[in-house]
Write a structure and sequence with these properties.
By secondary structure, this protein is of the alpha+beta class. The protein is 53% helix and 8% strand. The protein has a 5-stranded mixed β-sheet, covered by helices on one side. Helix 13 crosses helix 15. The protein starts with 11 loop residues before the first helix and ends with a strand. The structure holds protoporphyrin IX containing FE. Protoporphyrin IX containing FE binds next to helix 15 and helix 19. The site of protoporphyrin IX containing FE has 25 residues, from helix 15 and helix 19.
């Protein structure tokens, strides 16, 4: 049995056998204190779902920490804090509601399904460019596609879209560098100024001549969002939709390369792709846990949580909870229903979920169809865990 204080979301064990690891951890209770993370961990499906719902006791708001980080820094750095305060995922209602509504109304299922042809063209283009004698599917396929799709989503011209690859990485530096306060100022401010200028121009162009992209819808629905909040929404879409979707593709491909029989089955049953994508989300979904701040003293899962403490909603544990999933360790490509929490739940439920599903389905189906002889070159490196997600890893393959 795991010692309660030892539960460690970054550990290789939690990744290699999430079902066994989290079952052992749950023996101490569904909610428990982790000395390693210095935070409460919520480990059951019911508990994580309740945690997502209970936004008044478990807050997403980070504006206070952004403002503290920006205190006494340059004006440019303060703009970064301002930009991130416009990210709805870092806010609670009522600010969250105001920031989410215009994006939600632009991201209709119709607007997203309207991108299918463009996504297919992007996937075909990425496949055309692969060296069939030896390619890294991580770098050459999983990485560029989501960035190019978000470029399409925002109506960015094809020649400008390549800039998105690195920008999402730079944005990551911004988000993580603001927390804690002692981060270097120069590169963060420079990157932020570039984003603000680029997206500011894009929005102005969209206002003058709408392209009909979902960004047109967002600009039209912007309501009382101020200019920096609208730019914030665009940068959030870029950040929220890039690394996550890349990781979903990498993890799904990692499974298909280590289990050629699963890849063969999926080739023979392309109609199962939608449920297969949900199952990849469940077993190795990109978001392993999400942080929250305790805002009021309260009881949760038999534990007393105190205001100011940190808590993690452990999606990876919830998605392997035998109370909800039969044979949680098994990969069942036609599992239905599949109430995984990989896109979150409730108020902050992922606004890009249908886009991520569309992209992953098209990318995996087309790759499998086009390269029936695809095989790994050497050992497939196992996934690398971090508390909240996954590290990068190469996936070397021969395609023909
Ligand atoms: C496989 C890919 C993806 C995964 C695993 C994922 C996961 C998530 C999760 C877990 C949340 C909830 C965050 C929270 O409760 O704190 C979320 C929120 C969000 N996601 Fe995604 N996401 C993915 C793709 C995308 C894409 C493609 C976009 C847009 C282009 C996107 C945009 C957003 C936005 C805007 C939010 C904030 C919603 C809110 O706070 O109200 N995501 N995502």
């Amino acid at each position: 049995m795991l010692d309660a204080a030892e539960v460690n979301l970054d550990s290789p064990e939690s990744l290699a056998d999430p079902t066994g690891y989290f079952a052992a951890a749950r023996e101490h209770g569904d909610v428990q204190w982790s000395a390693h993370h210095r935070a409460w961990l919520v480990l059951s499906h019911a508990g994580v779902e309740a945690g997502f719902r209970d936004t008044s006791a478990l807050s997403s708001d980070k504006t206070g920490s952004f403002q503290r980080a920006a205190q006494g820094r340059s004006e440019a750095f303060q703009r970064v804090a301002e930009l991130l305060s416009g990210w709805m995922n870092f806010r609670d209602p009522p600010a969250h509601t105001r920031l989410r509504e215009p994006v939600r109304s632009a991201f209709t299922p119709r607007a997203i399904s309207g991108l299918a042809r463009e996504v297919q063209a992007i996937v075909d283009g990425a496949l055309d460019a692969l060296d069939t004698s030896g390619a890294d599917l991580s770098h050459d396929f999983a990485r560029p596609i989501p960035a190019l799709v978000i470029g399409a989503l925002l109506g960015v011209s094809p020649q400008d879209r390549h800039r998105f690859y690195n920008w999402s990485h730079d944005l990551g530096q911004l988000v993580f560098s603001l927390n804690p306060s002692g981060s270097p100022e120069g590169p963060v401010s420079a990157a932020a100024s570039e984003f603000i200028a680029f997206f500011g121009d894009l929005i102005e162009r969209e206002r003058a001549t709408p392209t009909g992209s979902p960004l047109s819808g967002l600009v039209a629905a912007a309501g009382d969002l101020n200019p920096i909040e609208l730019i914030g929404a665009c940068t959030l879409l870029l950040f929220g939709g890039h690394e996550t979707t890349t990781t979903l593709l990498v993890n799904a491909l990692g499974i298909l390369l280590t289990q050629p029989e699963t890849a063969a089955w999926l080739r023979a049953h392309p109609g199962a792709m939608d449920t297969a994508v949900e199952e990849f989300m469940r077993v190795q979904g990109p978001a392993r846990s999400l942080p929250r701040k305790v805002t009021v003293d309260h009881e949760r899962g038999g534990q007393q949580l105190h205001r100011g403490q940190n808590a993690y909603l452990c999606i990876a544990a919830a998605n392997h909870d035998p109370a909800v999933f039969t044979d949680p360790a098994g990969l069942e490509l036609e599992r239905a229903p599949n109430p995984h929490l990989g896109f979150g739940w409730g108020l902050h439920y992922c606004l890009g979920a249908s886009l991520a599903r569309l992209e992953a389905g098209i990318a995996l189906r087309t790759l499998l169809e086009r390269f029936p002889n695809m095989q790994a070159l050497g050992e497939v490196p196992p996934p690398r865990a971090s508390a909240m997600g996954y590290g990068r890893r190469p996936l070397r393959v021969r395609l023909a």
